[in-house]
Design goal:
The structure is a homodimer. The longest helix of chain A is centred in the middle third of the chain and has 22 residues. Helix content of chain A is about 35%, strand content about 20%. By secondary structure, chain A is an alpha/beta fold. At the A-B interface, helix 6, strand 11, helix 10, helix 13 and strand 15 of A face helix 6, strand 11, helix 10, helix 13 and strand 15 of B.
């Protein structure tokens, strides 16, 4: 008798290690063939489930699944598509269950951030209310590191390593040119609401490699005069200054400093451009020659510089999700629990989705220095373990070799279609 | 009897491997103690020579010099400062010789691009005309890869590896999100006049990993309608499109698409911003959701992703410069000579500075595909060997460990000062 199938989908902005979570889930399901049939993945995330566009991961050889460990992006496609309220858009949820029923899907693994944790919770609720036997487990992912309960989020450690490394390298460049060229360098980083990535820029500077930094956190309202003074002081003292600025920097009125004007499917403003804005300000007011960089997707796709800790944790939460489901846990998320800082030790715990969904974990104020422009020792103790270790991908002809799956479609079984 | 000293300085924009050339020169000088006393480095490039601000590299332990092999930026400081004409500003050149005479400097190693090759030539000429015994050798360096005679320039291979890797990684990200999010991604890269770095972006896509790319070279005038058609075609066919654009992109009238308005010490326009401009154009005319990144200094400082070939060649030209000087060659530059493509083999040759100075090597038209938006097999055959091999720096606590030298000042001997 065939075993029930599992559904796995990736949601929201991808990371350089979300595929490692996919590998963890799929390999663990394959290791439990006596209880799970096939893992069917949603093409382009939850949209694949709604439109019955499913990928049969059993068609992929073991080596392709293993190669997901070192491949950035979302191997099955992801999407920015948020299911609406259960009361107002019940048909969407019923459609999901129709598809699950048609393909004998009894396990629902949803790999995403806050929004998808909420979706995962709602799916588990409607399944229960309709009497459909579904076990729903959320797999944490987000570069923003803003998920509640879990000590950190897979995806964040690698971005943190990337921005800290990039700023350190740029600082060596700027320092050597500052006498006659660029004196102020500005790096814009991601992190819409929470300053975790901005804080990670602070790791570029440490005792052995001090760098004059000014960090602009999204949580701290931008004070132009005070900022310019901080940059001027450091530039006069060290000959140069490096600024790390969050894309989500806001002014005292709470307005984004750089509002691009467009919004994504969740209604979030599409950001970008605060880096050049800050650089221009420095030039106009202090007359220092400047350069700026906007890493944008490069930071969250940079699998070549992934944190080994991050890769391992991403795999672990994918694996744990399947194990939790098999042990009968429903509407939960495997969380990373920090056991100790030095040496860094962690384990997998369990968080109820009701505590995770739609909650944002902001950077604690005591992770930011008193002047608001740096990080504290407490922040370092938290951040350093997350960027530790290297996990380079294989290279050929000088370039990383990333896998593209075959992504074989599962034949449709439903007569009806659905417009998401 | 003390041996004559050598002078070494870094000039112009630094690279992730220029310090490997410094290591090559200093270690080779140290290995020839019977003929060269100390290597004195100019603090902040040639300005250090003019102001008698010299660094005694003999104060650095061997392990610090060895660590230059994996440290980006310019370890002694570089500068954007071009010596003016010999006829009009003879005093500058005479000042250089005063400083050299005071410190018994008989070897002049100048590590830079076109401008510094010209300076190196002029210094050798005035030394000869004034009867001062100086051997001047230029050490090639530039991320732009636009130096004449040499097959390629140290510094370029690592930038090429960085931009190709970054675009490949971003493409995996964009491809997985394109259905509901970003469809067009734009990466702005360096390369003021010559499209070598833009061409390297083309390596992101190959037979095993095809990526829909549109490259905008500085040599090919921007044709808006044709460009938009190319982007639209690829986006419709593949669901997404990646654009690599040179900071030096020009319109049909030869004007820079993004002129920042400021100019550096050489009178070159300070560029930046064509990436967002192109992205906005795609949004306005084609209405595709876009993202853009400007890697700026990150690309030329990214020692963590350096090409092993590049590091080896950077060291080799530093080493060869000293060997050439010791063999009596004057007003020359060690050049990289390509012996074969497959397998890639290279050796060091010798180029007279008169053939190198102030000449720019542009990207050949037959390296660019007929439509002007891609690279040819000929370009690949040239480029691939240059990005081959990895040479990661040591890491500690998750971050690359780069060396900062003590940079001990040589006591001044001249009563006079000089304002450069």
């Amino acid at each position: 008798m065939p075993k029930p199938n599992a559904f796995y989908a990736q949601s929201g902005g991808v990371t350089s290690v979300i595929n490692a979570s996919a590998a963890g889930a799929i390999e663990t399901a394959r290791a439990n063939k006596d209880r799970i049939g096939r893992v069917l993945a949603g093409r382009n995330g939850i949209i694949g489930a709604l439109t019955e566009d499913l990928i049969d991961t059993s068609k992929e050889p073991a080596r392709a699944i293993a190669a997901l460990m070192h491949t950035p992006g979302g191997a099955f496609g992801s999407c920015r598509y948020k299911l609406k309220g259960l009361d107002t858009h019940r048909a969407q949820y019923e459609r999901l269950l129709d598809v699950f029923r048609a393909h004998d899907i009894r396990y629902f693994f949803y790999n995403g951030g806050n929004d998808s944790a909420d979706t995962c919770l709602k799916v588990s609720q409607i399944a229960e209310s309709l009497g459909y036997p579904l076990t729903a487990v959320h797999v944490p992912k987000t570069v923003d590191n803003d998920l509640a309960v879990t000590d950190n989020c897979p995806g964040f450690g690698s971005v943190a390593k990337y921005v800290a490394t990039s700023m350190r390298e740029a600082a060596f460049d700027v320092a050597s040119m500052a006498l006659t060229s660029t004196k102020v360098f500005v790096l814009e980083v991601m992190g819409r609401h929470a300053g975790w990535i901005t804080a990670a820029v602070g790791l570029a500077s440490d005792e052995t490699t001090p760098i004059p930094l000014v960090l602009l956190f999204p949580e701290i309202p931008f004070d132009e005069a005070k900022f310019l003074q901080a940059v001027d002081e450091r530039t006069k003292a060290f000959g140069y200054c490096c600024v790390g600025v969050s894309e989500g920097l806001r002014n005292a009125e709470g307005r984004l400093m750089a509002e691009a004007g467009t919004r994504d499917a969740f209604g979030h403003a599409q950001l970008g451009g605060v880096g050049p804005l800050i650089a221009k300000l420095v030039k106009d007011r202090l007359n220092y020659k400047y350069h700026w960089a906007v890493a944008d997707y490069l930071q969250r796709a940079a699998r070549h510089l992934a944190s080994k800790t991050d890769v391992e944790q991403a795999y672990a939460v994918g694996k744990a999700a399947v194990e939790l489901a098999l042990s009968g846990k429903n509407a939960v998320m495997p969380a990373i629990v920090r056991v100790s800082d030095k040496p860094y030790r962690w384990k997998i715990g369990v968080a109820p989705l009701s505590e995770v969904a739609n909650t944002e974990k902001m950077l604690p104020r005591d992770y930011v220095s008193d002047d608001g422009y740096g990080i504290t020792d407490k922040a370092r103790a938290y951040l350093v373990p997350l960027i530790k270790g290297e996990a380079p991908p294989p290279y050929r002809d000088g370039l990383p070799q990333y896998v593209r799956l075959k992504n074989v479609e599962v034949p449709k079984k439903l007569a009806s279609t659905f417009e998401p």
